[in-house]
Amino acid sequence: MNFFNRQKTRTPAETVKALKDNIVRLDQTAAGEGRKRINEEVSRLLASTKNSLIGEGEAEPSPDVIAQVANEVYAQDLLSLLVIHLGKFDFEARKDVCHIYNTLLRRQLGTRSPTVDIIATRPDIIFNTLKGYANADIALNTGMILKEMLRYEPLARILLYSEQFYTFPNYIENTTFGISTDAFACMKETLTRHKPMVAQYLDANYDRFFNMYTTLILSANYVTKRQSLKLLGEILLDRANYSIMTRYIASEANLKMMMNFLRDKSRNIQFEAFHVFKVFVANPNKPAQIAAILRRNKDKLLVFLKEFHNDKDGMFVLFQCLSESSLMFEYLFCL
């Protein structure tokens, strides 16, 4: 009985310390009853820590308790340990880790975000979270944590400017549908949330980025190809990326790639490619080689646009799409 009484009188900070100790023990214990008991204790301590941060039932969390828990999490290096050992925890415990992480990331002291500041000094935490996509058991949990991290520009910058950013295609192309979709969503978040920072990165790393991104556009996987084309259109049409857009639409190879997609058997692929292709056509300052390609293919493009304009199937009745294809007629007739 004394053992249980001691557990009940733990302070929130002591609970966090006990959590760290049990995670270390879990990592050092072979499979069996002993490991099972430690895992159950880890689950209980995680649930208790979560409740201290977000409240239990209708009770609001205490700011003092939140501060105690947060400071002990930082002191015990739990931000790192929770990600590294997530795969050893039970299903519900993994969900509690997500709650703990997201609550701490959103915690503010005045204008400061202490958890963000700490992770910004520990890039390994971000990279280990990204590596969670390699483990199907925890991929969606770590994906949820990573999305929350990417809301903060200092953390998104660390990932974008790292070598690890270029592992996204592997997770997008070589995992299950659910994990692939989640990984793509995180890559998109990295590339779209903090626009001025991303524009600066793309301008400085144009060739490397688009060499990588083209592999996704040319993917044999329909979903990857479609969502990559859609995101490309969003990137190019964002005002913050004007200089990137002008470089992209000056490339003959890029134009030919989009024209090939206009012939794709999938109407959805054609639709997404059209929104990139129209930027080439509408450019008032076309390089000579771009204008020459469009002139050589003018008749075929006009036939395609006529069919595109008259298509009555699904999304092709959208007014915007029809009005844009009409505008393309005008541009092409003027070539």
UniProtKB/TrEMBL annotation:
InterPro entries membership: ARM-like (IPR011989), ARM-type_fold (IPR016024), Mo25 (IPR013878)
Gene Ontology BP annotations: intracellular signal transduction
Gene3D superfamilies per UniProt: Leucine-rich Repeat Variant (1.25.10.10)
Entry coiled-coil feature ranges: none
GO molecular function, one term: protein serine/threonine kinase activator activity
A Pfam family it matches: Mo25
Family under the similarity heading: Belongs to the Mo25 family.
Record protein name field: Calcium binding protein 39
Annotated organism of origin: Kwoniella bestiolae CBS 10118
